[in-house]
Sequence to fold (308 residues):
Amino acid sequence: MTISRKQSWSVDQLAKSEFFHQKLHEWGLITIAQAVDQISGEHLDWDLSRLDISIKAWNKIIHRGIKPVVIFAHPAVLSHLPRSTAYYRMLSMVSQKSMGQVGLSIVRYEKGTLPSIDVAERIARHLNRIISRLVEADDTINPREFDLWRGMAAGAQAQGSWQNTKGQKIETVIRGIVRRRLQERHSVAVDDDTRRFSLLDGRMVVFADEPDIGIYRSGKIIAAVEIKGGIDKAGVLERVGAAVKSLSRVKEENSTAVTVLILQGVSITEQSNLDLQTNQNVVNHWFTVEELLEDDNRREALFGLLKL
Fold:
């Protein structure tokens, strides 16, 4: 399979889009926004001076018929609604890192920990000062703009995560495809965390380092997937060799286990193909990332092998 530079870039775009989409759900942005929207906010004490909300921004929101709680952070919300700090932080279009720089680190709160009421008030005051300025800057207020503000901040955060994953980008994308398959099929009995999934049929799907994806029954591995990203042809034989070594250990544990290798098609050479054919007793099946992202039939073939 010959992959052109144009196809390589296309795959990179698909991978990045998949990654960003995963982050949207991983961070629970839709769920948080819906939860905030369900709050009436009428029972809250909106002391504008104490909350650092400008009168001009407040009046603009009120006159437009927008609920204040949807725009301005309130300590009672931050201290009772998990991860709501992310909603208002993104609405103000500031980063997690910059919040830490001003002495208001909120990473743990965006993961679910609830801040104390005192900390919540400090966070609310800081974000409201910024949000007020943004609201004041617009001659007219369009509610749709607030979604775009949060989207811009989420995109910037996802871009940072994408850059930090480096060689793990492809693993993240493939695992996301598998995770979505399990969710779509309602196969998960117990979602222990983002790396372990107990299935209704008694199997366990585990995302780890070796293998990258393992499927177990009663503690015994029955299927394994190794994912080797990288587009340089010079290193493909080394990547194939590392995969063979890892999957050999799987076969030693269970000779009947199904083993799969996923590579980037742009890196595959004639020699790497020969190596894979020679080691087919260890690497039973192989796919390219390009196939799994672009070809529904090949993706279904993978799921069939893994019985997912």
The domain at 185-306 is CATH 3.40.91.10 (Restriction Endonuclease). DSSP finds 16 helices and seven strands in the chain.
